[in-house]
Amino acid sequence: MSGVSISGLRREYGTAIAVDRVDLEIGRGEFVALLGPSGCGKTTTLRCLAGLEVPTRGEISIGGVTVFSGGSSVFVPPEKRKIGMVFQSYALWPHMTVRGNVGYPLKLAGVDRRALASRVDEVLERVHLRDKADRMATALSGGQQQRVALARATVSRPRVMLFDEPLSNLDAKLRLSMRNQIRELHDEFGTTSVYVTHDQEEAIALADRVVVMNAGRIEQAGTPQELYTRPSTAFVADFMGFQNLLRARVLQTLDGELRVGIDGTPVQLSVADRSGRWTEGAELTLAFRSGHVRVRPGSPDDRAPGGGAERIAGRIRRATYGGGSMRLLVEVGNTSIRAHVDESEFSRFSDDDLRAQRAVSLEISADQIVPLPPGDLPLSTEAILQLPAPDPSTI
Ligand SMILES: Nc1ncnc2c1ncn2[C@@H]1O[C@H](COP(=O)(O)OP(=O)(O)OP(=O)(O)O)[C@@H](O)[C@H]1O
Ligand SMILES: [Mg+2]
Hints:
- The chain is of the alpha+beta class.
- The chain folds into two domains: 2-229, 3-Layer(aba) Sandwich (Rossmann fold), CATH 3.40.50; 234-394, CATH 2.40.50.100.
- The chain contains nine helices and 21 strands.
- The strands form four sheets. Strands 7-8-9-3-10-11 form a six-stranded mixed sheet, with helices on both faces. Strands 2-1-4-5-6 form a five-stranded antiparallel sheet, covered by helices on one side. A five-stranded antiparallel sheet has the order 14-13-12-15-21.
- A hairpin with a 4-residue loop joins strand 5 and strand 6 (74-75).
- Helix 2 packs parallel to helix 4 (142-154) and helix 3 (113-126) packs across helix 4 (142-154).
- 38% of the residues are buried.
- The model has no long low-confidence stretch (mean pLDDT 91).
- Adenosine-5'-triphosphate binds next to strand 2 and helix 1.
């Protein structure tokens, strides 16, 4: 049985469309992250699931029960959906103790005092707050308050847990530990979880499946590894941290490989591709990670055609020490490639090699480059292309 099923979901606000044509099947016990930039419709989707928002159109079912249907006018109110929610703002009742907050959903459900007390103690134990049970909720730190919110959301053993950026207000260290607790609770209780975040690292670390949203629509859904290694659009690649997105053109299609020319440069590269979707002359975007670019000092001495990756001649525009590595922005023709050199490789370079204006040669192997539809390049990349070259006299 499906944990959650969403089909054809649409939510309009006046003339604005917050969510459109969202279809999503979430398996029972699955942990799904909704990932995307601000305003892409994550919260709206979650609120529609919770019943806090009435969709304009579509169908939603939870645990096989229809909770919303635009077609047959079904709307099950939030308190009947057997869901637990944790928000970015902890939304605790300030006049109640920790115990009072956590026990409140059970009290509403008419659970008797003794069962309520033991259930509350059990979840407080689980989130390591048993010793704070009689404190006022607001007399706790942010991280502790969020654990109270988590305990309150899980106390009645919901079928589905919904999280809306629950860790955004916490410091980095606490975020990591809360992240682990959330995943442990999910596994232990066997709930189905839908977790909204704009942090790709968080989504990848937590979820079984990541759904990337863009402008109200699902852009791509897949396992963290699929999205991390094989994004299907430039938007997803950018969101998954591919630092290089370059416009290019197919020069030749070969068996399992494309020869491509990078726009604004004389550079030709081989790109692994078995899809057969590309034709000669087609425009595309090439995505690859800066960590997959091998950097050598000086100009390429040989072009090494055939076996191995070709060497690309470039000139360092900017070199920034990034803690454990040197990040480089390398000018190649009229475009720029981002690369980084790990500290472990520093011995291959002299002190002077990794400075602005130095010549370098770059290599990217064919299977580390993802060919994508041309699409709109994200602003960050366009902005880099328009940066003026630094003036050598100021360096
Ligand atoms: N009550 C509302 N009235 C009008 N427009 C709304 C309302 N709620 C959301 N929107 C619009 O719907 C779109 C999606 O909003 P939503 O809150 O779902 O985005 P989000 O992905 O959660 O963003 P964020 O990461 O900033 O929280 C936005 O353009 C937003 O301005
Ligand atoms: Mg939101």
